[in-house]
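User: Protein folding is very new to me. Would you mind checking the protein record under this note? It all follows right here:
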Amino acid sequence: MKTNYPKIKVVLLTTNADDDFVISGIITGADGLLLKSLYADKLINCIRDAYLGEMVLSGEVSRILANRIRELTLDKKQILALRLERSGYQYTNRELDVIYLLMEGNTNNQIANHLFLSEGTVKNYISEIYNKVNIRNRVNAVSYFKDLITIRDKK
């Protein structure tokens, strides 16, 4: 719509905001993203502000954008730690090291050599990692952790 009518103002209304929707809305040129739960007077003010050229965002939408901007400065390991924490999982720094090396496709022996640990210690870490997320094998664990890095916030 913005392509054919560049001067038109588009404010997206949604019942719940998720990361993919918010990012897509911004990329496609929306002038605002608001939750439908806004009070009528606030909604009217936001539409007026959009008409006047302002970008209007609900608090939840702003939170999602702020989180994504923060993540731009993080590496994959830091993003993983942040998203695990947001999901309610607590891992030690050493466990995060092991998870990251698992995701990179390393064997237990390679992880042990990289972290200067015995292979038995690495196996113990891996067992504890699996238990925390209720996963029973390496393939599912690696898939889960990789998805966690690529999946956007749904809160």
In short: The mean pLDDT is 89. The chain has two domains: 11-71, 76-150. The longest helix spans residues 119-133. The radius of gyration is 21 Å.
